[in-house]
Amino acid sequence: AHWIEIAGKMVAGVLPYFDPQTGIPDFRGQDAESGHFKYTPGFTEESRNAFGRSMILAALYCAGSGDNTVPGWSGKVNEPYLKGLIRGTDPSDPCYFGPTGAFGAFGEEISQAVMYCPRYFWDPLTEEQKQRVAAWLAALAGGVGFKCNCWYFNSAPAPVLLKYGYPFNYERITEQMDRLLSWHSGDGFFVDGGNRSYDYYNFWGFQMFNLFHYKYTEPWKMRFGRRIRETTGLFMRSFPMYFGSDGAPVAFGRSLSYRWAAVCPVGYAEAAGLGALDPGLERRIASGCLKYFWEGGAMSENGLLQPGWLGPNALASEPYGHRGAPYWASVGFSPLLLPAGHLFWTSREKAMPADNEDRVRVVAGAQLVLRSNSRRGEARLYPAGSPRHNQVTWETTTKYYQHSYSS
């Protein structure tokens, strides 16, 4: 009930910013803390992320609650998204999204929403509208992406196109999936392409999408299932060591404004039937993390999730961040894919390492060391040999090159 309530408040917070005609959100002028993010009129990267990433949230809320309404909003939850989707994939409409283009990412969120809750985010479309959406997603699947975790954005449309029988370049995207899995370096960690880094993109990127495809892309479950099962099991061995007893994850690396997206692997693993931890331990970690950020003031006074850590704080962001980007936290609500009677919800919570253990764990695959300190309730990370190839200053120094990082 707490998870559904919080997801619902976030949905109700974002829906008032959707244009009733276009179905596209507009966050202009919201929160002085985010003032350094320059707004560009039109359908920008900020608008795309605000639309797509909150669509994941809306779909998970509807899937978990079984409801298409939310307290604090008078309309149907899916209406703005369907409006944006219908107009945005019609090339003759002035509100057309435009072609995905090279290095496009927007659209993978639509695929997630369709798979999580087709009842509200696919079934209401007409056949003609579905064909246009599918054609637009097929272009994303066939597009050129950055050779890193971003390839998953191109892979995400696969289950929708396969399930509903629409053509796309299956061989090409399957080869990319094979290459992504080949980047495993041990302990469930994957090298992030040219970045050569190990950070939370292994949580809300590699692990998340591998489990997404294991559950929803049947041919890839058959072809890549063994590798996904093995790497997920290895990853989960160290997963509990990243969280302090107050629920805070270790603040290490970039994109930390995604906040509780760090706990998404447990929900996706359980949904895929690959849960490798005690369900009570999983919920202790996941609920603790959500509670830490929610009670710490993650939502702004205007009802939005802004760049920051606890409250809005633009200094915690990166140049590629903006007011729509933090809604990748939506994938952290992955446990809402699990029915109310699932052991994740019904098991008694079990203590995690920072609660009652002093432990050290070497994660050789990512060249780092983890330590829990029960007296301090602390999780600490030492990036002992963890490389960082990208030489952009905001991605190095403070976020990657300190001697240690603490929860």
Main traits of this protein?
globular, mainly alpha, two-stranded antiparallel ribbon, 407 residues, 42% helix
Secondary-structure topology with pairs:
Blueprint (H helix, E strand, L loop, with lengths): L1 H13 L30 H21 L13 H10 L19 H9 L1 H4 L5 H15 L9 H5 L2 H6 L6 H13 L1 E3 L2 E2 L10 H16 L1 H21 L25 H8 L7 H17 L47 H4 L6 H4 L2 E5 L4 E6 L4 E5 L14 H4 L4 E2 L1
Antiparallel strand pairs: 1-2, 3-4, 4-5, 5-6
Would you kindly provide a written description of the structure presented here, covering whatever features stand out?
It is a single chain. This protein is mainly alpha-helical and 407 residues long. Helices cover 42% and strands 6% of the residues. The chain has helices spanning 2-14, 45-65, 79-88, 108-116, 118-121, 127-141, 151-155, 158-163, 170-182, 201-216, 218-238, 264-271, 279-295, 343-346, 353-356, 397-400; strands at 184-186, 189-190, 359-363, 368-373, 378-382, 405-406. It has a four-stranded antiparallel sheet with strand order 3-4-5-6. A two-stranded antiparallel ribbon has the order 1-2. α2 (45-65) runs parallel beside α4. It is globular.
